[in-house]
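Re-running the complex after MR caught last week's input typo. The corrected sequence lines follow. Everything else is unchanged.
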Amino acid sequence: MTIQLTHFSAAFVFAFFASIVFGITHRDTVRDMVRYGLYCFALFLGGTLLAGWAMWLIRR
Amino acid sequence: MANSNTARTKAAEPAQTVSTMSVIAPAVGWLIPGLGHIIQRRWIRGVLLLISITTLFVLGLMMQGHIYKANGGDILDILGFIGDLGAGGMYIATLAMNAGQGAIAFAVADYGTKFMIVAGLLNFIAVADAYHIAIGKKR
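Corrected-run output:
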């Protein structure tokens, strides 16, 4: 069984699960875990979008 | 002077208890992601780690990612092997099933390779976290 993800969906899935692990392992309280997980998720996806637009600009 | 400071610093450090749990939790956590947390009654954390790491690894396999073996060749292959090895039981099962051969025909197969490496690396972090819980460094 194979699966074909688009670039964005692959980045989204990666960011989602990696952020969960980062949140759980890098903070002590539940509140801090959730906040840090959301922060990592935003940075992952934000970084991906920024890099995408940067490459689009370079290409032009 | 310096020696007395060092001695004082060492005395101030909390003694780390080496218990059976501090050995078992990282070991089972490596073998099955999240189990090191589950056996220490961190149910939700354990289940979330299990789902996250397993899903990343399985998605990597389904994307026809390549799994590295301990062949000691190229330095990048060795680094990839170390990352994959972190997945523990899933890595062993994948090798046993002769899966993870990689498919050049799929454009996203390289993403799959990276998914599996990152799943292994994330499991290393989860193992360290389970150890910290076992020795009382983290709640």
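None of the earlier attempt is carried over here. Chain B has a mean pLDDT of 87. Chain B touches chain A at residues 45, 48-49, 52-53, 55-56, 59, 62-64, 103, 106, 108, 111, 115, 118, 122, 125-126, 128-129, 138-139 (CB under 8 Å).
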